[in-house]
Predict the structure of DUF4190 domain-containing protein.
Amino acid sequence: MSQQHPYPPVQPMQVAPQPSNGIGTTGFILGLVGLVISLIPIIGTIAWPLVILGIIFSAIGLVRIKNRKANNKGLTIAGLAASVVGLGICITWTIVTAMAVNNVRAELDRVAKVEYEVTGTATEVTVIYGEVLKTQEEKVTKLPWTKQTENKGALKGGSLVVTNGAKGGSVTCKITVDGKVVSTKTSEGAFTSVSCIGV
């Protein structure tokens, strides 16, 4: 008869918890997408939420790595770096956009001294002049004709349209804005028109 040897009791194996890398990876993805979007002009300003969330998730991921609950340190650091760079680009775009808007607003509000001038040999012309949406009309029988105004808006020089009458002759229109000639044109003959736009 054989003797049975009792086996020692089997100790349960200690299974190490698997690292959970989801938060650090999420921070990387948010930071990378936010960085790419932040590089696009105008649209880049909407990357704020992505890069801020990328910083938050990456920071939480680094804390989890420190506590040995995650092991994707390189990816998490890359996510934090991409998020910080993206945030810097977003801030830069916001500053540049604000400066551009302020410059445009200041230029639209600036008052310019404008001189409209019509010269030539014609003795019967119709002159339409002024800001684009606020024009005035005059019948002129003797040239040269000039008018000084102060204009605001995008097209400070406004417009100057001269239509020759039945007697014909030559006409030249000229627009001067703040002492600088911005447009001049010439036409000749009965019922012809010449148009100057002061850009």
